[in-house]
Amino acid sequence: MYSKQMLHLRNFKTIIYFVIYFLVIQLFLPFLMPVNIIYDDRMNYNFIKNRPTNIEAMLEQVKLIIDKENLKEYVVILGDSVAYSNPGPSNQSISYYLNEMAQKEGAGFKVFNLAMPAMQTGDIYTMLLKMKQYGISTDHVIINVVYAGFVNRDPDPPAVYWLQQQLKDIDLNAYRQVESNLLANSQNKEKNTNIISNLKKSINLFLYEKISIFKYKDLLQLYFSEKIDQIRGKVASETEPVQPWYTKDFLPELLKQPEYQRDSSDKEFKMDETNPQIYFLNKIIAMQKDTKTLIFLAPINNELLYYNFNKPGYQKNLKRIDAFFKDKPVDYINFNGVIDDKLFSDHIHLTPEGYHYLSILLFEKISTWEMN
User: What distance in Å separates the CA atoms of residue 230 and residue 117, rounded to the nearest whole number?
Assistant: First the structure.
């Protein structure tokens, strides 16, 4: 009898210790993470791309930076690979240059880059909702859109590329609006969509959103992997310098491929909510009413895409985009024809010099916003 009581007591103590251990990890793990691994002038794409739920850890860390530095005013950049500033490193990105300019001019704000390559407007809308969840202000936002985003999806690319499950969890009505596109898309058509599969997705989303040990699992692996490499004397390879497009002989032929020609289609755009681009832009604009929001249309390399750019249908579509934003309660800039073609690294991405020049133009606009 006595031994059974002792056994029960030991089991009870074990449970108590486990609960305490779990609570300590849950509360303090986010504060112990090395921030620069997950966010260094922009989010770590490699950390997010293989597991989009890692966006939770990234957002939590950005919020901790904001709180730690007691930031009252800051600007958030959202968008795709242009806003992310591919193909260069983070210290040649739009956000890096904007922060450099803000510091030099004594402007009292900081810039965070939460853009990610391949993000669609559905992802951007979802990111704004996630920012609100984490208490990250959406009062000052820069968003980039591209011409290709307005092209008919047949069904690629998906209207929401990375954050489909997050959108479904936060705004089910918006998810259902584009669900047929998402399910028909090549990214999803091979996947099992039965009840058990959906339940697993929901459980995984909950674990990676709410439980610190899951939320930071990949980050911990990445951190210790880098430490082991340092101990072994391995040195991280330096990023190769970004080359301008005219040094790449393969580009003209590559851009003749169907997937690239699709992005420059001259077929008339549907500028109503049957087009997912318009649907999500309307939701973004409605959400950002009474804030300082700048949406810019990324420029294309007119010389490299001369044949596409000069088609009458293409030019009419550009005018349709401009007309859509004309009376909207957001700032809008169409940068086509503004950036010198020599500053492109391909048909749409820029060299570091190109991103620096684009940053100067963006800074001229956001410096007019009232920020302390």
Answer: 29
| Torsional class of 321: left (φ above 0), alpha (ψ -120 to 50), beta (otherwise) | alpha
**CB of 106 closer than 8 Å to CB of 257:** no
The answer for residues whose C-beta is within 8 angstroms of residue 157's C-beta and 6 or more apart is 118, 120, 185
| Nearest residue to 284 via CA among 166, 161, 142 | 142
Give the Cα separation of 95 and 75 in Å (integer).
Answer: 9
More confident residue, 111 or 200: 111
Q: Where are the domains of the chain?
A: 1-32, 62-183+244-366
| β-pairing verdict for 292-297 and 331-334 | parallel
CATH assignment of 62-183+244-366?
3.40.50.1110
Tokens of 243: 């080359």
Output the DSSP codes for 294-341: EEEEPP--TTTTHHHHTSHHHHHHHHHHHHHHHTSSSEEEE-TTTS-G
Residues 6+ apart with CB under 8 A from 177: 276, 279
pLDDT tens-digit series, residues 122-159: 999 999 999 999 999 999 999 999 999 999 998 889 99
Question: Quick check: 235 pLDDT over 50?
Answer: no
The CA-atom distances, in angstroms, between 164 and each of 64, 159, 188, 265, 284 are 25, 9, 10, 26, 16
Distances (CA, A) of 335 to 82, 299, 359: 12, 5, 12
The secondary element (H helix, E strand) that includes residue 17 is helix 2-32
Helices then strands, counting H and E runs in the chain, come out as 18, 5
* C-beta neighbour count of 348 within 10 angstroms: 23
Q: In what order do the strands lie in the sheet with 331-334?
A: 110-113, 74-78, 140-145, 292-297, 331-334
Angle in degrees, 0-180, between the axes of helices 121-133 and 276-287, rounded to the nearest 10? 30
Find the DSSP H helices in 136-290. 164-170, 172-184, 195-210, 212-215, 217-231, 251-254, 258-263, 276-287
| Contact assessment for residue 207 and residue 48, using Cβ atoms and an 8 Å cutoff | no
Are 359 and 93 in contact, with CB atoms under 8 Å apart?
no
